[in-house]
Amino acid sequence: MRAIFSGCPMRLSTKGRYAVMAMADLAKNGRTDDGRDRAVSLAEIATRQEISLSYLEQLFARLRKGGLVRSVRGPGGGYRLAKGPHETVVAEIVLAVDEPIRATRCVGHSSPKGCMMAGERCITHNLWEDLGDEIHRYLAGVSLEDVVMNRTGARRRAPIGETGADEIGVAA
Length: 172
Fold this sequence. Notes:
This protein has 172 residues and is mainly α. It is built from 7 helices and 4 strands; from the N terminus they run ββαααββαααα. It has one domain: Arc Repressor Mutant, subunit A (Orthogonal Bundle), CATH 1.10.10.10.
């Protein structure tokens, strides 16, 4: 996803997108039909999501370090979510793989050093910084469960019965 605003790119890289895709797959496929947790191999995720296995290995090392997944060794090994899909939010995943959520082209969030040649902030800096904050706030309000159940954006706020999904436990 990439949009250009006044020369300042807003971007969520492949790293962040793929990490969210893989975690959503893990949330969806990490339970047996009788409701028990099961480990999901990266090879399974790679096949279903069409992501390189070696890339997933790099991402899951960061996700494990960030405390979002647990590895299971041995036959039937793979990964499990460290906490429930309703407790894991998309912003955590993106940040765990070292993907900053920002819309400015400046070095760091709230950085006094701007993106202009002389180190000043551009005239629209605060606008894009506020947009980045809104993106982060939105992603912090969307759980893996919401993603798997297709309860994002307007579908999340729709009255019961209008989305076709079970609305129990959905935050308003």
